[in-house]
Amino acid sequence: MELKWLEDLLALLEEQSISRAAARRHVTQPAYSRRIRQLEQWLGVALVDRSTKPVKIRDAGLALEDGVRDLVNRFYALRNSVHASAEHVTFVAQHTLAMSRFPALIRGVKQSLPEASYRVVSANYEACEALFYNEADLLLCYQSAQRSFDFSHRAVGRLNLGSDRLIPVMSASLAQQLGRPLQPGMTIPLLMYQQHSFLADALGAGCLPQVIRDYRIETICETAFSASLKEMALADMGIAWLASDIIGAELQQGRLLSCAAELGEIELDILLYYRDEGFAAKVGEVIAAMAGVA
Q: Are residue 47 and residue 114 in the same domain, yes or no?
């Protein structure tokens, strides 16, 4: 069976005419008819009723349309994915970094490597290590004093790309409702990271215990995704600790206000891990370019 036979059948189903389908497929009508017969022989069923003029597509042929179209699309998608995997440099990144630091880093890298292309797989911190081993060239992640990856048993290098801060912010409207500065003992609505996630643990080891001692806490929502917390904070739902990289514009515009003076903030290192041997030349170029950007 050949892929072009399936494409021939799709052309016939769409054109409802052997002559028009043959012209669309850029072959002579006899050659096109032979290919349709070869497909029929391979399937073991007649697809075309040749006893009528013009010929008609049998029900068996009509019933195949959706399946054949899907199969052809999947063949081409498979080819494209093979090409993409060979050409792209693949990153695994924590969800927050995928939307905050990664775009800025790639913008900088593109200045020196304009032809390079990238694929980024975002994941929770806990899943990043396995994804890095199994399907990625590079790992972009946070590190805190409490949690870091142990790659001592692997030939893995690392590059420090600076740091980011988790800043507690709320909307201007919520700030007006609560009053500023926040007063110890008052009830404050918090938008929190999912328990036992990396950022939740970082807050738990940092400023959150003092906040719990100084204020009455009302937890409005928990989620693993910074983007969701940001949207909820903008919707006046509560206070969220968010990476400074994703709220710079909102802070500048006054749509979000920092309450770090009252609640505290934490600093996290940003690291890029890479296999220290056997990486492709393109990956090495990206690592060098990122060192220059950082």
A: no
Q: Please, are residues 188 and 241 in contact by the beta-carbon 8 Å criterion?
A: no
**Chain center to CA of 181:** 38
Q: CATH number for the domain including 59?
A: 1.10.10.10
pTM for this predicted structure:
0.68
pLDDT reported for residue 278: 63
Co-location of 211 and 67 in the same domain = no
Structural domain boundaries, residue 202:
164-268
Residues 176 and 232 placed together within one structural domain of the fold: yes
Query: Averaged in consecutive runs of 10 residues, what is the pLDDT profile of the chain (294 residues)?
Result: 84 87 86 87 86 83 84 76 64 92 89 85 88 87 86 83 95 96 96 92 94 96 93 97 94 96 95 80 84 75
The confidence score (pLDDT) of residue 160 equals 93
